[in-house]
Amino acid sequence: MRTAGLASLLVAAALVMPTTVAAHPVPFSYLDIRIEAGALDVTLVAHIADLANDLKVTPAENLLKEDVVRQRAGAMVAMLGPRFFVAADHRPLTPAWSVAPDVLTDRQSLRFEIRYALPGPPGTLQITALMFPYDPNHQTFLNVYEGGALTQAILGRGRPQFEYFAGTRQGVAAVVRKFIPSGIHHILIGPDHLLFLVGLLLLGGTIRQLLIVVTSFTVAHSITLSLAALNIVSPPARIIEPAIALSIVYVGADNLLAQGGRDVRAWIAFAFGFIHGFGFANVLREMDLPARALGWSLFSFNVGVEIGQLLVVVAVATALASLRARSEMAGRQVAFAGSVVVIATGAFWFIQRVFFPA
User: 181 with 154, same domain?
Assistant: First the structure.
């Protein structure tokens, strides 16, 4: 009888123990940044479980005692300071920490107040926070307040930095400075977009014809880029990427089949530009588009893509025109060989993206 009672007690304890452990709050950190005239007011809330782990305080509840917190305040600031970094327009700001953190007993946390002086209205803020590296799953919830607007982000080991663009003239200028070069960079390192564009140029033509072709491509991809970036239409990459490869095959084949008929390259560029726009959007979505300047970021990225395309058009069209001026036969041979290469490369990419997507 006594043995049965002991067994029942052990079973009950086993059932209660996981419930108690599971009820323990999961530690997170919270950062609130308020942009004021001439300063940033920052609030950092950290859980005592994380602080106690790094400070070697046992038990962690000791950090809810005012006298212990005052004694450990300097050590806490020395520990947390290097893990939290703020820069304005890529210039580091100097923090002024509060003398001692506030005890938040109901949240089992401590609240630190930090102030940063601003030399002027910032265009961007670069915020880096990896508050408790011992825990690979630890996350810091970031809120940035400017006027009546709120911008949120989650920082952690996989994403320790966030760039905030201010809702001011300086912020708009910063968006333009970032996204125009990004658009140029993307078109110049995107081999599929470049090959599609080069395929459209192989048959040559007047400057007006080529500009119409490139503009048609730009208008079309700008539409779908905006739709996808705004999450209005978002086809999966597993469909878009093979479709882009097929568009390259089509351009090369059309070059070989063209027999002096009507030039329809502008229509081809326009039709397939819609597909390429979704490809651009997949890259743009990874760049943390600023919510407060979404229109400017999309516009600037498109301008950058257009500049990159014009650079390619000028270089390729000039080279082909120079070759044809010397030998019309050599120009036709280059157009034929180039079209074959375009078809082969597009077919290779299609097979790779459909059957070997990794």
Answer: no
